[in-house]
Amino acid sequence: MSIPDLIRTKRDGGVLSDEDIRTFIRAVTSRSVQDCQTGAMLMAMWQQGMNEAETETLTRAMMSSGEVLSWPTEWAGLVVDKHSTGGVGDKISLVLAPALAACGYKVPMISGRGLGHTGGTLDKLESIPGFNVYQSAAQIMDLLTSVGCCIVGQTETLVPADRVLYAMRDATSTVDSLPLITASIISKKGAESLSALVLDVKVGRAALFEDLDAARALARSLVNVGNRLGMRTGAVLSNMDAVIGRCAGNSLEVMEALETLKGNGPDDLMELVTTLGGVLLLMNGLVSDLSEGRKQISDAVIGGTALSKFQAMMEGQGVAKEAAHALCSAHTDYYSILGKSKYQMELATPTNGIVLDVNGLTLAEVLHKLGAGRSKVGEPVNHCVGAELLVSLGQRVQRGASWVRLHYGDLAPTPDQINRLENALVLGSDGDAQHTHTLLKELLLPPQEHTR
């Protein structure tokens, strides 16, 4: 069938055959289809949805549109990765990748940049002078051989169809299509030729999905397609209402990740790192239960072996040896290496009370306006713009105490933005306070036949 015929089939609620989908993806990859036709097909897919077979075929076709990485046979069962659907203060990858490498895994983590209010792992790492996120397939192999992990951007040859469709989805308001999200994420991970994959699916006001049922549906779709592609795939549904940890903003998050790797990480950050890593160890059959897997990841972080891997990764990806060593030493002046924003401002609590909530979405939106994020692909970011939370959930505070420190440049926060930030803090009384502040909502593990 011609491209217009394929569009008509899906527009009218029909099911696309495997060959129909492969024809469309070949045309997208070769750029032999018009942009308006690609947009029309995406809208038809968004409007009519896709069944499981269509979604799997779309994912396979996108995965095969470019280079598929291959690894030495002795690495069988060892190549793993993690993907997050995006959030505020999400520096999990910076801690988890070296922790997994310290446990003997190979982690070719292919990450993205921030867009809108969500931060990007690549932007965080590029706040480290010299860190090069652009690595060829041969360089990735060398890094995995010598270090065990790398965090890199998507190469030109890896899943080229996704690069076209991703930009087009943003332009056509089809970003929130469950089959298209699934195909985009799993095709890239499939092209990494992973043994196992864990997904951190965020749910809450600062996540792609605020509704638990919608997030659960995405998690199930990702897990199902990932397992059908031969990757042991599991998911963790985690809360994304407040900031993860205490820092948001690129260089500040690197500092917090380094402090975590030195054994000083906040509880919520460590909870997610150890759970996501523990799920990977459990799926690969290296531990008998999740608590044992979490302990192994925790030991790698607390014991310092993950920090050594992070230092080696920095050096392997272009950071000067002296700078990498200084960042990983016990008493580091982080600002002397990563830079410091031109101005800082602290906001005070309006009354006595217990910290019940800090609206992560509000904080991220203000930081985005101050230059920490980008609205369009390719826009620069100010790595030093960010915020440090000086309080934690459940903490008792006195009126006039500082609760957040803003880091900003020449673009100063407006009175309206300051007012929004002040309203982001919710204080209450003892009776309102929750006694537990876990980020974990649900685990979704693969069927038994997909675990080792």
How would you describe this structure to a colleague?
The chain has 452 residues and is of the alpha/beta class. It contains 18 helices and 13 strands. The chain has helices at residues 3-11, 18-30, 35-48, 52-63, 92-102, 121-125, 137-146, 160-171, 178-191, 212-228, 250-264, 267-283, 290-302, 305-316, 321-327, 334-338, 360-372, 415-424, and strands spanning 80-84, 107-111, 149-153, 196-203, 232-239, 247-248, 343-348, 353-358, 386-389, 396-397, 402-408, 425-428, 440-444. Strand 4 (196-203), helix 10 (212-228) and strand 5 form a beta-alpha-beta unit. Helix 3 (35-48) crosses helix 8, helix 5 (92-102) packs across helix 14 (305-316) and helix 9 runs parallel beside helix 10. The relative contact order is 0.13. The mean pLDDT is 93.
Straight-line N-to-C gap: 42 Å
**Percent of residues in helices:** 40-55%
Radius of gyration, taken over Cα atoms and rounded to an integer in Å: 22 Å
Principal-axes geometry comes out as: globular
Poorly predicted runs are none
Question: What structural category arises from helix and sheet content?
Answer: alpha/beta
List the helices and strands and how they pair.
Blueprint: H1 3-11, H2 18-30, H3 35-48, H4 52-63, E1 80-84, H5 92-102, E2 107-111, H6 121-125, H7 137-146, E3 149-153, H8 160-171, H9 178-191, E4 196-203, H10 212-228, E5 232-239, E6 247-248, H11 250-264, H12 267-283, H13 290-302, H14 305-316, H15 321-327, H16 334-338, E7 343-348, E8 353-358, H17 360-372, E9 386-389, E10 396-397, E11 402-408, H18 415-424, E12 425-428, E13 440-444
